[in-house]
Amino acid sequence: MIAPVYTTELSPATSRGFLTSLPELFITLGILFGYLSNYFLAGLPNRINWRIMVGIAGAPAAAIGLGVLAMPESPRWLVMKGRYGEAKKIIQKISHTMEEAESRFQEIKMAASRLDSENSSQFSGKGVWKELLLTPSPSLRRILIAAVGINFFMQASGNDAVVYYSPQVFKAAGIHNKRHLFGITVIMGLSKTFFVLVSALFLDRFGRRPLLLLGTLGMVFSLVGLGLGSKFLAENNSKPTWAIVLSIIAVCAFLSFFSIGIGPITWVYSSEIFPMKYRAQGTSVAISVNRLVSGGVAMSFLTIANKITFARVFFILAGIMTMATIFFYFLLPETKGKTLEEIEGLFEDRPSDVEN
């Protein structure tokens, strides 16, 4: 939860999309390394291979622990606490020029002053939670709906289930050779990593909405293709080669479109749209929905697939992503190039006033 909020609050508007999408890039790299380790350690005895994997995972965890010690505090948090001198020094370090640093500092001070003038001196506790969840303003309600919605659809897409259970999906497609299964999962990991990187590089150039809508539409067609391939494989004992190839291509396409769109953009969008006063609490609500839906989908995916077949599950997911595309088109305005203080104003208009 902290990583996207922290990155958002330190990033300039011109590169916030790229920097805030980096967590998703490194999550994807971690998944890829997991696939690669599975492939290369598969020949070792089971009592050894999992110990090596756990041991390797300890190295980046230790690096993060040490790196946190050198991280500066969020300048927006410092301003809210009245520690202007410390905030200004940090902004100067992370800005290209002194003029940019001064401009960012004044924008943050102005936003904090506006909250003070509204008798909003407390930025935590029951008051903020009540305003956020029980008595939100119309603009705050739209922000909360947008943040919760994009996090819900990110996990309701079934991406995590496909990542977790891809070997079972391919076994159902008639691929039983362990090396072949591991090889396909490595290809999946490479596809995810490449397209997350593409998204990160172009997010601040093309904007959030175009990549998000492209990604969700691509996921719809990929899931339909995967459903058709799975249906033909389940109904034909001969396991036609074209259906196996279609299923493999559809899975890789599904993960690629996820990685260019909703995967990284969810973290960027949900952490940048909340006003300063509600950012920590609002983002925590959105990410809590994300994790709950992820757990629910992961735990129920195989059970449901065994009851109604993989093909029907994929067709249902295609329907869910169709609804997601409609939701994003009408309720998520473009935030590219906007400062965090400017973004709140985007949600003060009617929901139909969404920039294309």
Automatic annotation (TrEMBL):
Main location: membrane
Entry's Gene Ontology molecular function annotations: carbohydrate transmembrane transporter activity; symporter activity
Localization per record: Membrane
Organism: Gossypium armourianum
Keyword field: Coiled coil, Membrane, Sugar transport, Symport, Transmembrane, Transmembrane helix, Transport
Membrane topology category: Multi-pass membrane protein
Domain of life: Eukaryota
A Pfam family of this chain: Sugar_tr
InterPro entries tied to this protein: MFS_dom, MFS_sugar_transport-like, MFS_trans_sf, STP/PLT_plant, Sugar/inositol_transpt, Sugar_transporter_CS
PROSITE patterns: MFS (PS50850), SUGAR_TRANSPORT_1 (PS00216)
Family named by the database record: Belongs to the major facilitator superfamily. Sugar transporter (TC 2.A.1.1) family.
SUPFAM superfamilies from the UniProt entry: MFS general substrate transporter
Keyword Transmembrane attributed: yes
Coiled-coil region list: 91-118
TM ranges: 25-42, 48-71, 181-203, 210-230, 242-270, 282-304, 310-332
Name of this chain's protein: Major facilitator superfamily (MFS) profile domain-containing protein
